[in-house]
UniProtKB/TrEMBL annotation:
Gene3D superfamilies, per database record: Luciferase-like domain
Protein name from the UniProt record: Luciferase-like domain-containing protein
Gene Ontology CC annotation, any one: cytosol
GO molecular-function term, one example from the UniProt record: oxidoreductase activity, acting on paired donors, with incorporation or reduction of molecular oxygen
Annotated ranges, domain Luciferase-like: 1-143
Species this protein is from: marine metagenome
Length: 144
């Protein structure tokens, strides 16, 4: 059995965003020290009073540079909000720079507010998710 910690990089009332980042990085360091297997990063958009985790791949790279053993995963990377080829390239790069410690969790999000912020109709989320997933799978498995 594996053990992990789900993280949203919470902001606390009275603290700034820098505090949220530092507290979360400290949490990751403790998780690694305690022997947890994975930290999972939740992608959250347009809610700075709750979370500063709008760029999970960037934060995963920062965590990879600060840790040695713990795996880093997305829970989840919201595929319909990004360019699938760009995501595939970034994920592949992240897996290399982390020494193979990256776990790629994907989803489409149940929060229409994230889509509204990107001017993407939520009604397109399912179709965009499957299209992005197919493109990313091809990027990982086919020669180009």
């Amino acid at each position: 059995m594996n053990f992990g910690s789900f993280m949203e990089f919470h902001t606390r009332e009275g603290n700034g965003q820098e505090d949220a980042f530092q507290e979360s990085f400290d949490h990751v360091a403790l998780a690694e020290e305690l022997g947890l297997d994975t930290v999972w990063l939740a992608e959250t958009h347009f809610n700075p009073n709750r979370s500063v985790l709008s760029a999970p791949l960037v934060l995963a790279a920062a965590i990879a540079g600060r840790t040695k053993k713990i795996k880093i995963g997305t829970a989840v990377q919201i595929l319909p909000l990004g360019n699938p080829l760009r995501i595939a390239e970034e994920v592949a790069t992240l897996d290399h720079v982390s020494g193979g410690r990256f776990e790629f969790g994907i989803g489409r999000s149940g929060l229409p507010s994230a889509y509204n912020g990107y001017n993407i109709p939520y009604t397109e989320s399912r179709e965009r998710f499957y299209e992005a997933m197919e493109i990313i799978k091809k990027a990982f498995t086919e020669d180009s």
